[in-house]
Design a protein that fits this description.
Radius of gyration of chain B: 19 Å
Largest sheet of chain B: 2 strands, antiparallel
Number of domains of chain A: 1
Structural class of chain B: mainly alpha
Distance between the termini of chain B: 44 Å
Shape of chain B: globular
Number of helices of chain A: 15
Structural class of chain A: mainly alpha
Order of helices and strands of chain A: HHHHHHHHHHHHHHH
Number of domains of chain B: 1
Oligomer: heterodimer
Largest interface: A-B, 44 and 45 residues
Strand content of chain A: under 5%
Low-confidence stretches of chain B: none
Largest sheet of chain A: none
C-alpha cells in the first residue's frame, strides 16, 4: 500500500458514514413511538454511555476490567450527594461526577495498570470492592444500604423540569450521549486511539517503536472513568436515587455482557447490546425477576461459544 | 497481658480454620489457572454446590456429616467433568475476555439455579453432636468444629502435597505447569490431565464449601460474594503453585480474623490494601513465576 493510500484508508474510517446516523434516528423515533417508556429509554441511553466507556478500555486498549462499576458508582454518588445537599444543578453535577470518577480512575490506574492479565483483573476487582466498601461504611453521607435519598435535581438551565413521563430525562440523556459519543469517536480515530489498538495487539512492538505505553493506557483509563462517571451521574439525576448496587460486581459484569452481546471494540456494540439487554431484562423481570440471571448467564455462555464478536460480529460474518 | 495473649491465640485459631477452608477451595483454582491459563471466575460455584449437597444431604435425608462431605466432594467432582469437557476446553489458550464472560455466565446461572432449587435464604449447617462442643487441649479449650476444620485441612493439605510431589500423576501436573509444550512432546496426555486436575480441584472446592459452610454461609450469591476472597488467595499465592495459595490463605485467614476482631469497621480495607500492595510488589504473586 502506498503511503497516500494508507492515509486515505485511515481517513475513510474517520469520515462519518451514513449508517452512523441510524442509532440516533432510532433514538429520536423511539421518543415518539414509545411515549410510555421514556423513563426506561433514558436509562438505556445512559447505560449505553457506560458500555461505551467500557468499550474504550476493553475494546480499544485491551484492558480486561472487572471494576468499571467503581467509576460509574462514583459519578452517581458525586452527582447524587451534591443534589441531596443543596446543589441540584444537573449539568455541573455531570461535570462533578466526571471529575471525581476521572480522579479515581487516574489514581487507581497508576497502581492497577502496572500489571497485566490476572493480576490486573484482580486489582480492578479489588479497587471496585474497596470503593463499594467505603460507600457502605460512609453511610452518614451515602445512606449505606438504604441508598441515597432526598435528591433534588433542579430544572436544566433553570427551565426544563424533570417530568414524570421522563421526556426531559430522555432528551437530556440523549444529548449527553451524543456529545460523549462524538468525543469517544474522535479519540478512537485519532493517532492516540490507533496507538491504543497497537498496544492491544502487540505491546512489545509498541514499546519498540517508542510509544509511551504506560502513559497511553493511563490516559484512556482516566478518560473512560470520566465517561463512566457521567453515565452514573445521568442515571442518578434522572432516577433521583443511588444505591450500593451502582458499585457492585454485578454491575461491572453486566456492562461487559451488554458490550459483548453487541460487539467489543466497535463503538457501536454498546448501541445494540444495551437496548437488547435492558429491554429483555425489563420484560423478563416483570415475569420473573430472579431467573432473569439464569437466562442472561445462559446467553453469555452461548455468545462465547457460538457468537464471538457479538451480534455485530455475527452480522459481519454473515455478510462475508 | 494474659488478655492480649488469649486474643492472639483466638485470632490465630479462627484465622487458621478460615485459612484451611480458603485453601481447600482455592487450591484447585490455582492449579487450573496455572495449568490451563484459564481465568475461572466460576470456581466458587463448585464450592457452593458442595455446600448445598452437604446441607441438603444432612437436613433432608439425615445423612451423617462425614459421609455427606464425601458425597459432596465426589458429586461436585463428577459434575465438573462434563462442564470442563463441553465448555471450558474450547477456550483453553483463548482470550481472557471470553473466559471471563463464560465463567461469569456460569456464576449468574448458578445464582438463579440455586435460588430456584433452595430458595433465597441461606442454608444453615447443623454440625453433628460430636462437633458442637469444645475440645480441651490442656492450655485452653477450643471450639470443636473449628478444631475439626483445622485437622481436616492439615490432613488434606499433606495428602495433596504428597500426591503432587511423590506420585506419577503429580509429576505430570508439575511438568505441565512448568512447560506445557514439552510435557506434550514427551507424551503426557495433557487433555486428560486437565480434566483430572479440574475434577480434583472442583472436588476439593466442593469439600471446602461443605466443610466451611459455617464460615462462608451457603446462599445463592455465594460465588459472587466470595469471588474476591478466592481470587485474592490465588493471585497473591501465585498461579500454578500448590504452596503459594497455602501461604496466601494463611495470611488472608489470619489477617481477616485479626482485623475483624481488632478493627471490625475497617478490616476489609486493610485486607484489600495489603492485596494491592503485594500484587504491586510481586505481580505474579508470592510464589508465582514470571
Amino acid at each position: 500500500m502506498t503511503p497516500s493510500r494508507a492515509v486515505e484508508a485511515f481517513a475513510r474510517r474517520h469520515r462519518y458514514h451514513p449508517f452512523e446516523a441510524l442509532p440516533w434516528l432510532a433514538a429520536v423515533a423511539a421518543y415518539f413511538v414509545f411515549p410510555d417508556y421514556l423513563a426506561l429509554g433514558a436509562q438505556i441511553l445512559a447505560t449505553i454511555l457506560f458500555a461505551l466507556s467500557a468499550d474504550l478500555v476493553l475494546g480499544y486498549a485491551g484492558i480486561v476490567t472487572l471494576g468499571h462499576a467503581a467509576f460509574f458508582g462514583t459519578g452517581a454518588y458525586t452527582a447524587g450527594i451534591l443534589a441531596a445537599h443543596g446543589w441540584g444543578e444537573p449539568i455541573t453535577g455531570l461535570f462533578a461526577g466526571a471529575a471525581v470518577a476521572a480522579l479515581l480512575g487516574f489514581l487507581s490506574g497508576l497502581v492497577v495498570l502496572r500489571t497485566t492479565g490476572l493480576a490486573l483483573l484482580m486489582q480492578t476487582l479489588v479497587v471496585a470492592t474497596m470503593v463499594a466498601e467505603a460507600a457502605n461504611k460512609a453511610s452518614f453521607i451515602t445512606g449505606g444500604d438504604d441508598g441515597l435519598q432526598g435528591m433534588e435535581v433542579w430544572p436544566i438551565f433553570g427551565w426544563f423540569r424533570f417530568d414524570l413521563f421522563g421526556r426531559t430525562s430522555y432528551a437530556y440523556c440523549l444529548i449527553a450521549l451524543i456529545l460523549c459519543w462524538l468525543a469517544a469517536r474522535q479519540i478512537v480515530h485519532s493517532p492516540f486511539g490507533r496507538s491504543l489498538t497497537g498496544i492491544r495487539e502487540n505491546v512489545r512492538r509498541m514499546h519498540a517503536i517508542g510509544a509511551p505505553v504506560a502513559r497511553r493506557r493511563l490516559t484512556i483509563y482516566t478518560i473512560s472513568a470520566a465517561l463512566a462517571g457521567i453515565s452514573g451521574a445521568l442515571i442518578a439525576q434522572t432516577t433521583q436515587f443511588v444505591s450500593l448496587s451502582f458499585l457492585s460486581l454485578e454491575r461491572s459484569g453486566t456492562v461487559l455482557i451488554m458490550l459483548i452481546i453487541g460487539g467489543v471494540g466497535r463503538l457501536y456494540g454498546a448501541f445494540i447490546g444495551v437496548p437488547l439487554y435492558m429491554v429483555a431484562q425489563n420484560r423478563f423481570s416483570e415475569i420473573d425477576p430472579v431467573y432473569w440471571y439464569f437466562w442472561i448467564g445462559l446467553l453469555m455462555v452461548l455468545v462465547v461459544g457460538f457468537a464471538r464478536g457479538g451480534l455485530l460480529g455475527l452480522f459481519d460474518r454473515l455478510r462475508q | 497481658m494474659a488478655d492480649t495473649l488469649s486474643a492472639a491465640i483466638s485470632i490465630g485459631f479462627h484465622g487458621l480454620a478460615f485459612a484451611m477452608v480458603l485453601y481447600l477451595i482455592s487450591v484447585g483454582l490455582s492449579v487450573t489457572m496455572g495449568l490451563m491459563g484459564f481465568v475461572n471466575l466460576a470456581h466458587g460455584v463448585f464450592a457452593m454446590a458442595g455446600g448445598y449437597v452437604v446441607t441438603s444431604l444432612m437436613s433432608r435425608w439425615g445423612v451423617p456429616f462425614l459421609p455427606a462431605l464425601l458425597g459432596a466432594a465426589v458429586a461436585v467432582s463428577l459434575a465438573s467433568i462434563p462442564i470442563e469437557r463441553v465448555l471450558y476446553r474450547r477456550l483453553y489458550g483463548g482470550e481472557e475476555l471470553d473466559q471471563v464472560l463464560l465463567t461469569m455466565g456460569l456464576v449468574f446461572m448458578s445464582v438463579a439455579g440455586a435460588t430456584y432449587v433452595w430458595g433465597p435464604l441461606q442454608q444453615p449447617l447443623q454440625p453433628p453432636q460430636w462437633l458442637s462442643g469444645a475440645v480441651d487441649l490442656g492450655v485452653r479449650s477450643f471450639p470443636a468444629y473449628r478444631s475439626f476444620l483445622i485437622l481436616c485441612g492439615a490432613v488434606l493439605v499433606t495428602a495433596l502435597w504428597l500426591a503432587i510431589e511423590r506420585t506419577r500423576f503429580g509429576a505430570r501436573v508439575r511438568a505441565s505447569v512448568d512447560n506445557l509444550r514439552m510435557a506434550q512432546s514427551v507424551g503426557i496426555d495433557t487433555s486428560r490431565l486437565f480434566m483430572m486436575t479440574f475434577a480434583l480441584g472442583s472436588g476439593l472446592a466442593g469439600l471446602g464449601g461443605g466443610l466451611g459452610a459455617d464460615l462462608l454461609a451457603i446462599n445463592p450469591s455465594y460465588a459472587l460474594q466470595n469471588l474476591a476472597y478466592f481470587l485474592i488467595v490465588v493471585a497473591v499465592g501465585g498461579l500454578g503453585s500448590i504452596r503459594g495459595p497455602f501461604v496466601a490463605a494463611l495470611l488472608l485467614g489470619i489477617a481477616d480474623s485479626g482485623f475483624k476482631y481488632l478493627l471490625p469497621e475497617f478490616g476489609a480495607f486493610f485486607i484489600y490494601t495489603l492485596t494491592m500492595a503485594i500484587l504491586l510488589w510481586r505481580p505474579h504473586g508470592l510464589f508465582g513465576r514470571a
